[in-house]
């Protein structure tokens, strides 16, 4: 088995912050005792990867860096301590590449909060290469009847929005506004929300995204933030009684909606912040926040159980979000489109091209 693993592979490498990414051959690494080597077949491209290229966040990346954290593939090698995942199993390299498993947070299944967490495509090399390493305890277990191209976006976008919807606390029959609905996280959020019995108001811009949200993803209404004269009024008017959505999931990459959500959320409602626009601040009027008793919170990826559940939603046929497959060599084109806000849904890279 090991003899089939090449010594060199194709990868997309960031040499310096600001990019561009370079498509080139680099060595294949060997997994450590508690790690697996995954032959990545497909990898989704998340906006987080673009933040990493641009050095947007107050957390430095490793350099040079191989980005990517929605990698789906096949286990081809494992360290000697790994016994609960086998060579040939399908596995996902997700944002949380590893964590200590011993700290206060890890013990309570809050492993994304672990101060020793390793982040794929950020603090360790990720899935924009043909062979990626991850801690065996953290790789997602992907059932063999699940297609590896379609499951790739679930490995970050799906897990994250599923967790965010749980954090929102909205119950079946209630409404959720998804802000940034036409993007990668937003398109999956609509499908998870619908599967959880929630009624969806999609907020984004442009006819392509509007059509996708209303005709493919199950949104009941669409508010175009760029053409609406009054987003707050339009979102409230989209709810049955005009009082606003019970929850708001913010997955946009823009500060403004983070300041608007508290205005249109329903009294007792919750605003869940997920998107990470560079340098942005949350702002809400104290008076209205208090007398409406609203909750404003952050939500960050998901733990191993959330990951398994999010994959199971897909396996049961509940999640169908559009994605486009292009070669790994075309990553820069995907970043350019993402930067211009032109992607409806998700791009997935085929690492064989
Ligand atoms: O764990 C987390 N919290 C987590 C996990 C994964 C990703 C956070 N993220 C973050 C990413 O780093 C990024 O900042 O979520 C954000 C969204 O990631 P994405 O879905 O991969 O991005 P995208 O596909 O580019 O979609 C963004 C959408 O937002 C819309 C755009 O039109 C696009 O469709 N949008 C923007 I920009 N401004 C908007 C506005 N004012 C807006 N939609 C509504 N109102
Ligand atoms: Zn991501
Ligand atoms: Zn820990």
From TrEMBL:
<keyword id="KW-0479">Metal-binding</keyword>
<dbReference type="GO" id="GO:0005737">
    <property type="term" value="C:cytoplasm"/>
</dbReference>
<dbReference type="GO" id="GO:0004022">
    <property type="term" value="F:alcohol dehydrogenase (NAD+) activity"/>
</dbReference>
<dbReference type="InterPro" id="IPR002328">
    <property type="entry name" value="ADH_Zn_CS"/>
</dbReference>
<protein>
    <recommendedName>
        <fullName>alcohol dehydrogenase</fullName>
        <ecNumber>1.1.1.1</ecNumber>
    </recommendedName>
</protein>
<dbReference type="InterPro" id="IPR011032">
    <property type="entry name" value="GroES-like_sf"/>
</dbReference>
<dbReference type="Pfam" id="PF00107">
    <property type="entry name" value="ADH_zinc_N"/>
</dbReference>
<dbReference type="InterPro" id="IPR013154">
    <property type="entry name" value="ADH-like_N"/>
</dbReference>
<keyword id="KW-0520">NAD</keyword>
<dbReference type="GO" id="GO:0008270">
    <property type="term" value="F:zinc ion binding"/>
</dbReference>
<comment type="similarity">
    <text>Belongs to the zinc-containing alcohol dehydrogenase family.</text>
</comment>
<keyword id="KW-0862">Zinc</keyword>
<dbReference type="InterPro" id="IPR013149">
    <property type="entry name" value="ADH-like_C"/>
</dbReference>
<dbReference type="InterPro" id="IPR020843">
    <property type="entry name" value="ER"/>
</dbReference>
<feature type="domain" description="Enoyl reductase (ER)">
    <location>
        <begin position="18"/>
        <end position="349"/>
    </location>
</feature>
<dbReference type="Pfam" id="PF08240">
    <property type="entry name" value="ADH_N"/>
</dbReference>
<keyword id="KW-0560">Oxidoreductase</keyword>
<dbReference type="InterPro" id="IPR036291">
    <property type="entry name" value="NAD(P)-bd_dom_sf"/>
</dbReference>
